[in-house]
């Protein structure tokens, strides 16, 4: 009875729920037992350490993990590999990346860059005096948080200063950073407060699509749902893509959690870790920009395609 | 033969290895004042707690007016008209005097609001509470909406006694009701007890105050080491006899259950 | 709305005045304004948190000049605290019985998922889906109450357990799928009603009243629902027998039981009622975010407890008030909003929130002390 | 280690036997085994949670056959609960005084950041960095205690506030940067010492003892630290005057004050001590992950309170024990690990954890009831 | 002139609009037994709380052996040798009898452990606690490690009285120490009070029990409506006089401060 594990950052985030569903389906297909585990919150390193230990005790053949703290988890992953487990890291690469057997990731920074470029392209000349609001994840800036945020800035052409930390920039176009915790209700609250500070906002970056949906409610309440504000996000979940379709969301970067998980499971089951281009360092499962209004020079796919690929 | 108002046989209650009740018997005749006396820790309070459902005895039987009863909570006893002043008073500290008096039998307003929205008739309850306390001579309490925790020790006891006296309909049990009361207030409580008897109720009075006991009791139940060791008639025995029996200095009289 | 359990007590004390020939009574004409204020505060202790709130408002009107002190911004704060205030009302009920409910947040989410998903995904008419959601909340609360009373377990443990359980049910029923605003608008706009905005000024203007001070205020029906819920529960707590039993059960449960209160029934009632209120909060939540997000509200437990405690309700039960909780929620809302507008760095906003919470309660205690 | 405040009371009760001519005493020879077990449980109520733990172990040895019931797995569980158990010891102290500490988690993280960052990033010798971290924890706790006592605020509010404050300081000092295991190994391996693994079997074998039952066990020094901390605090609580004052201050603070206890000093001592213990937990945390992760520990508060409450300590203060907390932490650890190994879907694992927590405490209460 | 052991002038304490102390005076002479009597709610307990730092008076002055003092907490009073039995007893319910007796003045072991690790000398404390209780005739308590909450009302009171009697070194104040005690136990407490006096201590005894008061008191302080209205000599007045003055039925005698 072959056991393979899947460890996600949190349990209830739809991104990870769908990832687990994808893995579950693949496990059934392959006839292996899937053990799933998750941290209690984004950044819960200890929960993931315990999950890895339990997989070792369960005699797993290997596991896929979306690390919460890409540096701190390294020694535990080493321990698992020493015990003979195959480890594939999903979504967020480890630091150092080669601490895992393989990495299947969407580059979160890249995902941020895509929407940043799109926003810049869409605004055209107006981009140089844009007013941007950032709805981020948490004060302590977990990995995805700063990767996406800084990616957006890089795409938009903002000097990011320290690329691993937001909040130290001095670009006047940045109006404010607010915390949304990736939550729809808090997203609305954050946007409401941001609007008080930046009544003339015209670009809103959001950490994920629930935060974007909340932000849109706040914009709507003050009549800024008329297209005067560009709302961009990351994830590519079905509700998000539909919001792009409906025009409430300008663009979103789509990622592919099901694909990642399924590939990882297959690889571990087969015991064949795919060769990875050492120049990149990881196997990119891709991030694609979805928008109804493509911009020259920024690769994107249509909403229809996005809907076919979306994950829940 | 007269059926006792409240009767118990062979009540037992152990706490770990402490035996609080050791095959205790109990008889309360209709319309009598029965005093229960005994040393500290003899088990008097435990006895009445067992009788009123506040404590469930390990074994033993209880009859109310000849009917076997087994109260699982004090509410059941109260619903049958047994009203008790517990030694710890059973008052809610943060609630007002009026609220405490009517706790668990609040009166609703009789108008539309009362019927539709179950609005309480606070005016009525405050008036009644004040009246009952005045009857007990507790004149120093002026504000019936004062939380009970701000009352003096004696005032608190007065509230508990007034509550039991006002609502007892079948049996009234009072565990040391005058312990914290002043001279004047104690007198009033004794008068209240006699008045309750006039109304036809039987009363159980636990007290360490021998003059009080001998003044009002029809019979005296002497409790010692967890059981009833004698029932004496206060007219035929002196206070010193009672104390001597209670403390074990004198053998209990052979049998004197009247 | 004064708090009966501790408040009304002060109403008409007067050993001094009433006892004939008693000790010196106070000369009313002689009292200075401070003394008068003291007496008012002592008589209506519920007004104290309002003063703290006022102080907060004054501070932020300096810290974030212009933006903060505007009717529109106050309207925002009101909208932002609505959900926590409603959950706080539910939590107040529980805490008054010396309990604690860690499951209020998840009950709310579960109820919102039941309402939304049943109506939008399964196409059940909203006339059924909505009551179904309310019922779900009630049932969750009832389960909590049943376990607390029948198994005699500490509420902390029970609701910690049911938090996991209801959370799992939520993931299972919702499939972690968001319901979009647009979809909901199509099949069940009623569920979004609480988010509808109205301008009180226009409202009264239509009735022919020109209430200038209302200009700029933008309320939503959710706030009205919140006020209604609070008013009803205030009434229940202060004007009905059940309310008295709630206070008594939390104050000293043993005494309450000996005094003849069925504390079990009271507790089950409280938990079930709290569950129901959580379901109403779910309705307001749907209105606020336009749809259903099964991951929302994860910090709602702690936030609701915070509102209750800042509102002066004791975690040991038996003392506290609904009004306090509303003000408590508002205080936190004002701090969060004011700090956000102040432009302080995020990190130092967190710091300041911590300091302000402590300061707010310190001032509250201090006023209480000097006024007694 | 028996719980003195409620436990030892049962030691030698005997109105029956000691009173000359008193009521019937029990015939020892006559008692059946069930009756004997009952008496033992009554005499040592601390043994009851162990029974619950045992039941849990038995259940999972069926639910996850082979994997669960292995020394190696038990070693894992022990390692996994170490941190929560240590924080639980700190939390027990606080809860015994009828307080609650929402800041234990963040104090731990802050202390770990101070230790790690000072040593690794700023290159301060570990001989200084480590005590500095301990001092940081102590100081945080001291601040909590000072505010609780001097401003007379509810501990919930105070530690909620300092949670934000310490959290902000943590973000500020740590810059949210993880310190990697390799870097730490280079500059401050001492901080990783608690993570060092040793095999008790080998240890005793080297001493010439062939203890077969120890085969397969893999402990780390963190577990030893945990046991030491628990033993010291157990001693303090049960064998020193300070311990008695802790119980008395939580049991009935007014009575304690009237009886002449300086409850303020006791409380400040308790909070400071708790902060210090959190700093020790920080050391163990560094050992466990090899480095410092400044985002960890966010659920540690609730987890530690859970361990305390499952361990039978009352949230109302004055009643409880350290041993209970250790067992409480173990119970949760066993559930989590057992469920993880069972291969249940994550969603239903959550469901089961909720159910099991409730069931565990129910069984505990039930045994207590029949044994009294 | 003799310096009073404990003296107060013009003590005031208001709770909202309730005046609990209204310019109350107080004098306790060295080595005397001073009884304080008064109706329920007269302010007796508040008076002694103000004297011992348990309540801070709104204004007023206090002297201990002629030295002005202002206790901010009961600890300060206790450290100066003033030992008090409060009406609510001030016991920790979950702690054992022995723990309660030695609360705040626990005895350490005298050996190495005691010095190094501050280990308590439990054996000693248990022995002493048992002995003190036995002196009070509370023989029904057998297990000195029983939590106080499992004791009967009278047993609890016995613990509090024993504690004060054992540790008072300058003044002993007892607020209704015999309220819950049985006949025999009350006698023992009175004996204890007399024994304390023999040891040279002054004692304040608050009681509603007139026979007790007249039996042991050297002087009687009569409290009414928050103030001292008279001090009488029990040898020159009868119990009925005292009660009459106390309840306002009789005018207080002009001046009789001896
Ligand atoms: N919950 C309990 N746990 C253990 N022992 C108890 C408990 N309740 C009562 N006891 C013991 O039972 C005995 C009888 O107590 P009870 O309160 O009935 O005495 P009592 O006759 O009312 O005394 P008093 O006159 O002092 O009120 C006492 O020795 C007491 O210690
Ligand atoms: N904390 C408080 N808040 C409000 N009123 C109080 C408070 N404490 C005492 N009082 C009031 O002060 C008055 C005096 O109380 P005190 O306890 O001193 O009376 P006492 O003479 O000891 O009575 P008793 O003989 O019944 O013990 C009472 O009317 C009481 O209601
Ligand atoms: Mg009794
Ligand atoms: Mg008194």
3D structure, described in words:
The complex is a heteropentamer, with 1 copy of chain A (312 residues), 2 copies of chain B (258 residues) and 2 copies of chain C (372 residues). Chain A has 312 residues and is of the alpha/beta class. Chain A has helices at 14-30, 45-57, 74-82, 108-123, 143-156, 184-197, 209-221, 238-246, 257-270, 303-309, and strands at residues 3-8, 33-38, 62-65, 86-90, 102-105, 132-136, 174-179, 203-206, 230-235, 251-254, 283-284, 288-291, 300-301. In chain A, the strands form 2 sheets. Chain A has a 7-stranded mixed beta sheet with strand order 7-6-8-9-10-12-13, with helices on both faces. Chain A has a 6-stranded parallel beta sheet with strand order 2-1-3-4-5-11, with helices on both faces. In chain A, helix 1 runs parallel beside helix 9 (257-270), helix 4 packs parallel to helix 5 and helix 8 (238-246) runs antiparallel to helix 10. The longest helix of chain A is centred in the first third of the chain and has 17 residues, at 14-30. The mean pLDDT of chain A is 89. Chain B is an alpha/beta fold and 258 residues long. Chain B is built from 9 helices and 10 strands. Chain B has helices at residues 44-51, 74-79, 97-101, 112-117, 122-135, 153-167, 183-198, 210-216, 239-247, and strands at residues 6-15, 18-28, 33-38, 59-64, 67-69, 82-85, 171-175, 203-206, 219-224, 227-232. Chain B is globular. With 372 residues, chain C is mainly α. Chain C has a single domain, classed as ABC transporter involved in vitamin B12 uptake, BtuC. Chain C has helices at 15-18, 33-43, 47-63, 71-96, 104-121, 126-150, 155-174, 181-187, 200-206, 221-239, 241-251, 253-258, 263-289, 300-310, 322-342, 346-370; strands at residues 197-198, 219-220. In chain C, helix 4 packs across helix 14 and helix 15 packs antiparallel against helix 16. Chain A binds chain D through residues 3, 11, 20, 24, 33-38, 40-47, 49-51, 53-54, 56-59, 68-76, 95, 139-142, 164-165, and chain D through 64, 67, 70, 72-73, 76, 79-80, 83, 167-168, 170-171, 175-181, 285, 288-299, 336-337, 340-341, 343, 345-347, 350. Residues 44-45, 87, 175 of chain E line the site of one magnesium ion. Chains C, D: This is ABC transporter permease. Chains C, D: Keywords: Cell membrane, Membrane, Transmembrane, Transmembrane helix. Chains C, D: It holds the Pfam family BPD_transp_2. Chains C, D: It is found in: Cell membrane. Chains C, D: It comes from Kaistia terrae.
């Amino acid at each position: 009875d072959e056991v393979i594990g899947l460890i996600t950052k949190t349990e209830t985030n739809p991104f990870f729920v769908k990832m687990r569903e994808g893995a579950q389906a693949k496990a059934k297909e392959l006839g292996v037992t899937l053990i799933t585990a998750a941290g209690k919150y984004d950044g819960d390193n200890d929960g993931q350490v315990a999950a890895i230990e339990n997989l070792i005790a369960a005699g797993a053949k290997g596991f896929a993990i979306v690390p919460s703290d890409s540096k701190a988890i390294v020694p535990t992953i080493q321990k698992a590999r020493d015990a003979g487990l195959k480890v594939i890291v999903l979504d967020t690469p480890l630091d150092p990346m080669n601490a895992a057997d393989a990495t299947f990731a969407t580059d979160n920074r890249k995902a941020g860059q895509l929407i940043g470029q799109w926003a810049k392209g869409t605004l055209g000349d107006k981009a140089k005096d844009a007013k941007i609001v950032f709805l981020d994840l948490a004060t302590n800036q977990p990995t995805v948080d700063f990767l996406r945020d800084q990616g957006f800035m890089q795409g938009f052409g903002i000097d990011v200063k320290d690329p691993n930390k937001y909040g130290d920039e001095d670009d006047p176009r940045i109006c404010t950073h607010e915390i949304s915790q990736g939550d729809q209700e808090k997203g609305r609250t954050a946007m409401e407060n941001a609007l008080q500070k930046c009544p003339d906002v015209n670009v809103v970056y959001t950490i994920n699509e629930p935060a974007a949906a909340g932000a849109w409610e706040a914009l709507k309440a003050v009549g800024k749902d008329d297209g005067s504000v560009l709302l961009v996000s990351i994830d590519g979940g079905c509700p998000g893509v539909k919001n792009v379709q409906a025009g409430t969301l300008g663009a979103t970067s789509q990622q592919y959690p099901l694909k990642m998980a399924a590939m990882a499971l297959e690889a571990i089951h087969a015991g064949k870790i795919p060769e990875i281009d050492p120049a990149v360092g990881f196997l990119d499962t891709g991030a694609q920009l979805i928008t109804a209004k493509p911009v020259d020079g920024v690769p994107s796919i249509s909403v229809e395609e996005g809907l076919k690929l979306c994950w829940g | 033969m007269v059926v006792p108002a409240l009767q118990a046989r062979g009540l037992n209650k152990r706490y770990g290895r402490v035996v609080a009740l050791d095959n205790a018997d109990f008889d309360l005749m209709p319309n009598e004042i029965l005093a229960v006396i005994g040393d500290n820790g003899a088990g008097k309070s435990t006895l009445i707690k067992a009788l009123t459902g506040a404590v469930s005895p390990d074994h033993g039987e209880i009859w109310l007016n000849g009917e076997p009863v087994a109260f699982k909570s004090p509410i059941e006893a109260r619903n049958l008209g047994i009203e008790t002043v517990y030694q710890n008073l059973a008052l809610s500290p943060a609630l007002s005097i009026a609220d405490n008096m009517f706790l668990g039998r609040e009166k609703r307003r009789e108008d539309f609001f009362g019927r539709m929205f179950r609005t309480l008739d606070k005016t009525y309850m405050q008036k009644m509470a004040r009246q009952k306390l005045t009857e007990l001579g507790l004149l120093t309490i002026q504000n019936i909406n004062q939380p009970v925790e701000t009352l003096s020790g004696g005032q608190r006891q007065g509230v508990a006694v007034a509550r039991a006296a006002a609502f007892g309909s079948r049996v009234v049990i009072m565990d040391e009701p005058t312990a914290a009361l002043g001279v004047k207030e104690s007198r009033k409580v004794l008068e209240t007890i006699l008045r309750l008897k006039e109304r036809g109720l039987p009363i159980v009075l636990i007290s360490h105050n021998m003059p009080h006991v001998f003044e009002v009791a029809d019979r005296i139940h002497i409790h010692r080491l967890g059981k009833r060791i004698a029932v004496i008639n206060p007219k035929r025995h002196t206070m010193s006899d009672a104390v001597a029996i209670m403390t074990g200095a004198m053998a209990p009289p052979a049998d004197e259950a009247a | 709305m004064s708090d009966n359990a501790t408040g009304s007590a002060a109403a008409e004390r007067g050993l001094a005045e009433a006892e004939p020939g008693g000790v010196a009574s106070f000369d009313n004409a002689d009292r200075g304004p401070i003394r008068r204020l003291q007496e008012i505060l002592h008589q209506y202790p519920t007004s104290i948190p309002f003063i703290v709130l006022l102080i907060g408002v004054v501070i932020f009107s300096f810290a974030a000049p212009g933006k903060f002190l505007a009717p529109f911004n106050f309207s925002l704060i009101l909208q932002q605290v609505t959900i926590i205030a409603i959950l706080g009302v539910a939590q107040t009920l529980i805490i008054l019985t010396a309990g604690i409910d860690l499951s209020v947040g998840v009950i709310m989410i579960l109820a919102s998922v039941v309402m939304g998903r049943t109506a939008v995904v399964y196409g059940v008419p909203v006339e059924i889906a909505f009551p179904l959601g309310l019922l779900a909340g009630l049932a969750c609360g009832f389960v909590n109450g049943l376990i607390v009373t029948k198994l005699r377990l500490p509420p902390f443990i029970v609701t910690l357990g049911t938090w996991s359980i209801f959370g799992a049910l939520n993931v299972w029923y919702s499939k972690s799928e968001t319901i979009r605003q647009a979809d909901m608008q199509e099949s069940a706009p009623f569920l979004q009603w609480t988010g509808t905005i109205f301008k009180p000024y226009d409202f009264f203007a239509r009735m022919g009243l020109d209430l200038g001070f209302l200009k700029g205020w933008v309320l939503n029906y959710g706030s009205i629902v919140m006020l209604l819920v609070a008013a009803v529960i205030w009434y229940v707590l202060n004007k009905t027998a059940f309310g008295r039993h709630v206070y008594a059960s939390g104050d000293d449960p043993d005494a309450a039981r000996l005094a003849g209160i069925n504390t079990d029934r009271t507790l089950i009632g409280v938990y079930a009622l709290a569950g129901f209120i959580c379901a109403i909060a779910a309705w307001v939540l749907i209105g606020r975010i336009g749809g259903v997000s099964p991951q929302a509200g994860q910090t709602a437990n702690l936030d609701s407890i915070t509102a209750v405690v800042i509102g002066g309700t004791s975690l040991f039960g038996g003392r506290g008030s609904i009004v306090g909780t509303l003000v408590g929620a508002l205080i936190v809302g004002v701090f969060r909003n004011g700090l956000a507008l102040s432009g302080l760095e995020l990190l130092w906003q967190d710091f300041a929130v911590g300091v302000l919470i402590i300061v707010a309660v310190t001032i509250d205690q201090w006023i209480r002390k000097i006024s007694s």
